[in-house]
Amino acid sequence: MSIDWTHFTPWSALAGGVLIGLAATLLVLCNGRILGISGIVGGLLRPGNDRGWRIAFLLGLFSAPFVYAALAPADRVAAPVIDAGWGTLALAGLLVGYGTRLGSGCTSGHGVCGLSRRSPRSLAATLAFIGAGVAVVFVVRHVPG
Amino acid sequence: MPARASEFLAGLIFGIGLLLSGMTDPAKVLGFLDIFGAWDPSLALVMGGAIGVGLIGFGLARRRTHALLGGPMPLPATRPVDGRLILGSLLFGAGWGLAGFCPGPALVNLAAGEPAALPFVAAMLAGMALHALLDRRG
Predict the structure, then answer these.
(1) Does the CA dihedral A19-A25-A28-A31 come out positive or negative?
(2) What is the pLDDT of residues B63-89, one digit of tens each?
(3) Is the Cβ of B133 closer than 8 Å to some Cβ of chain A?
(4) Tell me, what's the ipTM?
(5) Å between B137 CA and nearest CA of chain A
(6) DSSP structure class, residue B36
(7) Residue range B101-134, pLDDT digits in tens
(8) What range defines the domain where residue A65 resides?
(9) Integer Rg of chain B from CA
């Protein structure tokens, strides 16, 4: 293992993480809701009437790039680097969509909220999805052929 | 503050946190998962910062029966670790490692007009809908 010092951004990572923790705190303390993106979106695809809070949250999320672009210095607004082709992106999306619903959560719901609640289920889920992610990246990047 | 305003604000702050931390860039996420290559530990610090604040927030929430703006507090899950949890998380992790997108960053990229987010989010919604369909039958 070698640390990639040119891409490692400790301070903005920590500051962004603090904002993510504040958002999860705000939503649970004020609204009694868990900030889990796959749960929030998945709930809209099922029958039921608790849609208002999900839509309000998602409108806030969709506003974020515009507010961020207005607030952040220009050199901090970088376009993402996406190497995957559309076929890979579609397969990945299918796995992420089905997997997060079967596993009852994703990076935000299990990784942030669940670990903050010291949930053993979320710890198991987080270890599983990080482990699988590491394995896939290893195969894609380091296994020849 | 009305409940809808704090829900909107939570989404906005969450999204800004993703953007500031760099987690909306799949290259940074894949750099974290690539522990056998040139490793970018940033994602660990994002999680650390978020959980550091979250431990306090969820600690406060646990002492309350109702949220500040109404509604009951969510109860901790009492279900055990089971096969669905692990299999689902493994499938999710595999997809995450293929593209570097998880649901939140993918939605922020879609809102920002990033074309690559479109096939990912469309397929993600299809995967979620497929699960809802199979779940209702089974």
Answers:
(1) negative
(2) 999 999 988 998 877 789 999 999 999
(3) no
(4) 0.96
(5) 13
(6) T
(7) 999 999 999 999 999 999 999 999 999 999 999 9
(8) 10-142
(9) 17
Residue for token pair 């809802």: B132
Tell whether A50 is covered by a domain.
yes
**Is A90 part of any domain?**
yes
Say whether B66 sits in a helix, a strand or coil.
strand
Determine the Cα angle at A20 with ends B64 and A23, to 5°. Answer: 45
Any residues with CB less than 8 A from the CB of B81 and at least 6 apart, and which?
Answer: A120, A121, A124
User: Domain total for chain A?
Assistant: 1
What gap in Å lies between CA B92 and CA A133, rounded to an integer? 8
Position A135 in a domain: yes
Residue B138 has pLDDT above 70, yes or no: no
Question: Does B25 score more than 80 pLDDT?
Answer: yes
Phi-psi region of A87 (alpha: psi -120 to 50; beta: other; left: phi over 0): alpha
Report CA Rg, chain A.
17
Residue A74 gets which letter from DSSP?
A: G
Contacts with A, B 101-130, CB within 8 Å:
101-104, 106-109, 111-112, 114, 116, 119-130
Confidence band (pLDDT; 50, 70, 90) for B38?
very high
Please provide residue A123's backbone torsions phi and psi, each rounded to the nearest 5 degrees. Answer: -65, -45
Give the tokens for residue A121. 């289920």
